[in-house]
Amino acid sequence: MGSLFRSEEMTLAQLFLQSEAAYACVSELGELGLVQFRDLNPDVNAFQRKFVNEVRRCDEMERKLRFLEKEIRKAGIPIVDTGENPDAPPPREMIDLEATFEKLENEMKEVNTNQEALKRNFLELTELKHILRKTQSFFEEESARVEDTQILIHAEHLPDTQPMRLGFVAGVINRERLPTFERMLWRACRGNVFLRQTEIETPLEDPVTGDQVHKCVFIIFFQGDQLKTRVKKICEGFRATLYPCPETPAERREMAIGVMTRIEDLQTVLNQTQDHRHRVLVSAAKNIRVWFIKARKIKAIYHTLNLFNLDVTQKCLIAECWCPVADLERIQLALRRGTEHSGSSVPSILNRMTTKQAPPTYHKTNKFTSGFQALVDSYGVASYCEVNPAPFTIITFPFLFAVMFGDAGHGLIMALFALWMVWREKQLMNQRKDDGIWSIFFGGRYIILLMGAFSIYTGFIYNDFFSKSLNIFGSSWHMANISDDDIKNNELLELDPNVTAIYKPASPYPFGIDPIWNLAENKITFLNSFKMKMSVTLGVIQMSFGVCLSLSNYRFFKDPLSMFSVFIPQLMFLMCIFGYMVIIIFFKWIAYDASISYKAPSLLITMINMFLFKFPDSQDDYMYSGQKGLQIFLVLVAVACVPCMLFIKPYFEWRAHKSGKRTVRFGTVQMQVNGASEDTAVIMDQDEGEMPPPPPEGAPAHKEEEEFDIGEILIHQAIHTIEFCLGCISHTASYLRLWALSLAHAQLSEVLWSMVLHIGLGFKGWVGAVVTILVFPAFAVLTVAILLVMEGLSAFLHALRLHWVEFQSKFYKGEGHQFVPFSFEALMEDHN
């Protein structure tokens, strides 16, 4: 189990790097990913650090790359990801990268500007083409109206007058603004204008956004300069574009020919510009992933170098870092490679340091264990060298989930889904999307696989397969002496297990629940009793195991006082009450068979009477001989454990203080040091080859000058004692959620079967086949949505709570901080 059981042994090291070799050494350490650097300049502003200019240059490179990436995606060009992971380029290559990115950005901006200008000209010419085409009909109608007016004047023998000349403006406006535009013209001009409009059939492309816009051509007739000014202001307010339009047909025809020629020439130029832009973006798309990696690695290196200090000679950089002791040799080799790559003649130096600060917690995980470790870390990172619950969670978490989710059919679907994700792991990882829900499912694929596998196991224990029982081995109940008439004439038949012709106790169902119970009216009563006792048993076993794991912590941290004053009383208290309850559960199952089951006492009444010291008068009512004396003894021992947990540890700490022995506290650790200074104690432990547990970061190792407050210690111990004693009761009751959720899942599954799929199975012949085909999709969707997703999430959260609160509270503090090494691999994963 190695470092997964406890944190890797960590050490604080000091690095001395020559200025010319620092970049290459940090690059090698980033590729290795085993060093967490400390900030030696916490009071220095980020803008006042040595390499702030280099960081700004990297930010600028990333900005240019993001601009190129945006343009590539906008053009719909796929970005090639070859999986290449180049090393961080040397500092001199940074200038070449900057020049390349600057050239590409300027070229793209110039192309975009030119393309936008060309598109704007193309749009204007297209709108002018439609105006010339549409307004021709407007002028023809106007001419016809003037001729009719002249004819009317001559017919009435009115004096001949000159025709009224009207001014006009023509333009284009967005279709959705036209109704408001028309109303505004009518109101502002008091009805003294004449508006004609028609829609352009094909939508036009906006040169800025690229969206397709529907527009309308309009022409407004008016008389007088005052109305002309007013109309132009209204057009400007509604963002209508006005175009010059000749008055004579010949001029309009000549302008239309010129416009069509210019449109064709402009279309050719636009196509050439688009082809050139596409070629530039395709070329950039082949290298942009590699460029991003290089730029981010350079930026990460300079960010890290800003954490270092300069020595007085300004020629050496000094760094402090946490690193695993087992990997010191690999770190030194990386430093040696970095020094060689830089061409420096002075080697880099790594020195181990002694410190009182708490090292970070580092558990080595792989793709299988990382998901379970994340479940534990989400509650709290383990204190340094504290027992890690993750190795045990790998088994207990999916098992408790399966106890609540136990259905072999549903577990099979879940396991197959997880197996598909594991089988196509590499392809799915390369095609990983930004969807948060999918990332969660994929990251927990091994957790889901084990949950499905354990659910299949518990499903066979419960004999549940989509709410139906499987008669694999043949039921132990028989109806040999019951006639068909008895079955037809009686809705309910009672099967007595004492009748050997009906039940054969010598040959019980080999594995799981007998399938006959699926047909029984008292099925829920029977399963409730079984699952309730099973839940309490599993809960007491897991809590007892958690208390036993606290012994491993006390032994590792050399805390014999807590072994005798905390661990032993806690275990005895738990075993005397709840361990005894589990024992009599099994004793009742074994000692009382069907023939004498009516004599079996109630477990709940037995436990209540045990604490009230109420016992039966008749000896025949006891479960076993000596029950009265044993139960009294267990209650007295459990009661005696409470003052032991409350007073023994504070008393010995008080005695140690009075006798001059100081207690060195390291969080959960306490060590007696006789007359030795704290630093001496640390050095002595290191000389003996043992790693002493450090105090929490920023906290003193002991209170040398502060007054010893026995009252505060007693209050602290009383809180922990009350929390444990009451927690044993509440946590045992909390495990009944295993029974409750198992019952709920089974009942929901049965309801879904009977109300959906059973409809189709109730018909016979081809009608039944057709109805079954029609209702099966609904059954499948509801099964996945309700029983797998919703019920699965509910069981997952309840199993998580049982581990966080009921199990881990017995031994796990989770007050540490995570080891976060400087790693290029983690950096690339965060940006993907």
Automatic annotation (TrEMBL):
Keyword Transferase: no
Transmembrane segments: 399-423, 443-462, 536-557, 563-587, 632-652, 766-790
Biological process according to GO: vacuolar acidification
The keyword Coiled coil appears for this protein: yes
Function: Essential component of the vacuolar proton pump (V-ATPase), a multimeric enzyme that catalyzes the translocation of protons across the membranes. Required for assembly and activity of the V-ATPase.
InterPro entries, per database record: V-ATPase_116kDa_su, V-type_ATPase_116kDa_su_euka
Pfam family, one: V_ATPase_I
Mode of membrane association: Multi-pass membrane protein
Gene Ontology cellular-component annotations: plasma membrane; vacuolar proton-transporting V-type ATPase, V0 domain
Cellular location(s): Membrane
Family: Belongs to the V-ATPase 116 kDa subunit family.
Superkingdom to which the source organism belongs: Eukaryota
Protein's recorded name: V-type proton ATPase subunit a
Coiled-coil regions listed in the entry: 51-121
Name of the gene: LOC109462331
Gene Ontology MF terms: ATPase binding; proton-transporting ATPase activity, rotational mechanism
Entry keywords, A to Z: Coiled coil, Hydrogen ion transport, Ion transport, Membrane, Transmembrane, Transmembrane helix, Transport
